[in-house]
């Protein structure tokens, strides 16, 4: 196996680990609450607080460390991540659990952004879009797959074991990163002022808007994916794990298609993709009346939602590489940041909306965000 292929695999697995660490919590919240004798609402704040810390710390740490050697920064942050995740697995009480989640949230986004920069460095231009899409897919897939995986491990053993497994894998991945990651990759002229020049570009701003609104649209319904499958669609709890896995597979397929689309069409199909999300969300209420039609619709919408993240990340990196090279670190962090901002907005919107609409009507709420994404995509495709 060539060194390039090994590097690609390790980078994808690193991003996947970061995503699993974040989203496994969703599948084991009930078990965590039971083990600490805490309320679901208190433990549920783990998800929101992680996303908030992630979104705040990622651009700060990314820009602050931009003037240092990327390899050394990556290895240091991986060590901090390992310590934080291990603390999650052994946290003696809820206070230390929150501390551990803050530690991992603070560094996870910068780790992914550095991984994406290294991908850009090692990949030939003709392979860049596919490799960036594959690497970012590692994180994106974990947003879907992390839930059933965490649930399955928790059911078979305990919720602590799911995080212990991540720590073991992190040690292995760190060894490969030390071996395969390029050295001597200090970023020149990476001052804060130089990096934020990136946001003067209209394409970047519109891309951020599109990504945040699409993630918000997704998490208005995915926040309640378990009750949607069991309570609305009427499937049993024994069917839940494999149905969540099926939905996750469609998301993976969407990510795989994204690399091809980014290579052939760039961002020109984003309006169509956003429009497809809007249509699916508007159809939810009608199609949720039939169990299998509802599952098919969930698979279709997750397939489509698997595409824009990678397409936009390729655009962010290409714009920075061509016109703002000093802002490569910041550009590489935009998609993970947007993902977590969108998750926070979508989950909060879902929590508020559920008091006013039935759960089978939650698609109408997400459609509002999808409509904004359609408009943003329309102007982004035409932006210079």
From TrEMBL:
Residues 7-384 form the Major facilitator superfamily (MFS) profile domain. SUPFAM superfamilies: MFS general substrate transporter. The keyword Transmembrane helix applies. This is MFS transporter. It is a multi-pass membrane protein. It comes from Limosilactobacillus caviae. Keywords: Cell membrane, Membrane, Transmembrane, Transmembrane helix, Transport. InterPro entries: MFS (IPR011701), MFS_dom (IPR020846), MFS_Efflux_Transporters (IPR050189), MFS_trans_sf (IPR036259). The keyword tRNA processing does not apply. PANTHER family: CHLORAMPHENICOL EFFLUX PUMP RV0191, PURINE EFFLUX PUMP PBUE. The chain crosses the membrane at residues 40-61, 73-96, 102-123, 130-150, 162-180, 204-222, 242-263, 270-288, 294-317, 337-356, 362-381. It comes from the Bacteria. It is found in: Cell membrane.
